[in-house]
Design a protein that fits this description.
Elements: E1 4-7, H1 23-34, E2 38-42, E3 59-62, E4 67-71, E5 77-83, H2 88-101, E6 105-108, E7 113-116, H3 120-128, E8 135-136, E9 149-152, H4 159-165, E10 169-170, E11 179-183, H5 188-199, E12 206-210, H6 216-221, E13 224-227, H7 233-238, E14 241-242, H8 250-258
Parallel strand pairs: 1-2, 1-12, 2-3, 7-8, 12-13, 13-14
Antiparallel strand pairs: 3-4, 4-5, 6-7, 6-9, 9-11, 10-11
Length: 261
């Protein structure tokens, strides 16, 4: 029996085309709640960049598991369950590397987001994800910040080199133009586990929806992992089922199929 459902945001709850929650997704959430299923967010975004949505959630895995917390009745952060910042040494090493190679960098702290060396590609990514304009600062201003996640606008060819200079991090890439940088020992699955422990939910009582490379661990951990139709093939291969795309009511189709409605 499913008691909890976890949802990625970009490409799952929100279309890259409309940046809106579809009518079908609203209906699916209504069905889940009517059956007593708790709903949670699981995203690469920090809380400050989670848009207001006409949906109810009881907790959030933010920054790919960097910060995990419950949400109160008003939909605001309540109790912190997991806190996993990037090691200070790795954060500093990245800033020096990014400065040498002039790499556009977005850094997420617990309080917000800063960008440095913002270029046209960075602006396009910001617009694609419907991010608000981040605070733009000189690259040296990122030194000394406690980072939970870094977005590095660089091609995949640089990933191996970067991993060598960031020994305590991993790079869950889900976009060809940039990669996330997070602490090596965390992922979305760790966040799901923390929320399930808090709410007394078993692993086999969960389902999760996602579309990106940073969703793979979550889809594998959940009792039922659902890949969106717009997901990369590597994500679909790791999921228990594949639904239709975010623009073709993928969440509603999967929920209706799983709950036989």
């Amino acid at each position: 029996m499913i008691k909890a459902a976890f949802f990625d945001i970009d490409g799952t709850l929100l279309s890259f085309r409309t940046h809106c929650v579809s009518d079908g997704t609203r209906r699916a959430f209504g069905l889940l709640h009517s059956m007593g299923v708790r709903t949670f967010l699981s995203t690469g975004r920090p809380w400050g960049l989670v848009p207001k949505m006409p949906l109810a959630f009881e907790g959030c895995v933010s920054m790919n598991g960097g910060l995990v917390f419950t949400l109160n009745a008003a939909g605001e952060p309540d109790q912190t369950l997991l806190r996993n910042p990037i090691a200070d040494s790795d954060s500093e090493a990245w800033v020096h590397y990014a400065r040498r190679h002039n790499i556009c960098t977005m850094m997420f702290t617990e309080r917000g987001m800063m960008a440095s060396q913002l270029n046209e590609t960075g602006r396009q990514i910001r617009d694609q994800l419907a991010f608000p304009m981040p605070q733009v600062v000189p690259i040296q201003a990122l030194l000394g910040q406690q980072a939970y996640q870094i977005i590095a606008l660089m091609p995949p060819e640089r990933d191996r080199e970067v991993m060598e200079i960031l020994p305590h991090c991993r790079l869950p890439r889900w976009h060809p133009a940039f990669t996330d940088i997070v602490a090596a020992h965390i992922d979305k699955a760790q966040g799901l586990a923390a929320l399930c422990r808090h709410f007394g939910i078993r692993q086999d009582e969960t389902m999760a929806f996602g579309d990106g490379g940073n969703d793979i661990e979550m889809l594998q951990w959940a009792g039922i992992g659902v890949a969106m139709g717009n997901a990369d093939e590597c994500v679909k291969k790791k999921a228990d089922m594949v639904t239709t795309t975010v623009d073709d009511e993928g969440i509603e189709h999967a929920v209706n199929q799983l709950f036989n409605t």
